[in-house]
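Appendix B, Record 12. Input sequence as logged:
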Amino acid sequence: MIRKFVFSDWETLDKNEFSKAENIDFLYDDEWVKYTLENKAIICFKNQGDNEWAMLLLVGNNFTSFDGKQIKRFMFKCVSELKAKRVWTISRQDELIIKWHKFLGMTIEKQVEHENITYDLWGITWE
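Logged structural output:
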């Protein structure tokens, strides 16, 4: 079951290699709308204006394909409730992450550099 995030969710998440965020300031930022799939994932959205939302997903080592389906359904529910026209995220270039974003229906829009690392900017747009 996906519910509103509480800070202890971050502490109990068995973070996988992609979810060990060094800067967790976003967890304290009330501009981010945060949810959790208890002990499995944290999903966050932030309004960027013009019905465009940034999305951040941190998953645990125990995240399964069934959990992925739940997250996808939840993402589409949030898109409807938030009246989002576009959702985007930035991620490292990795075969597993590429498969995940394609599963969500996202496409690579461009690549961006940050601190000499190339990231993919993924997005999905609704009419």
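Residues 90 and 121 are 4 Å apart (CA to CA).
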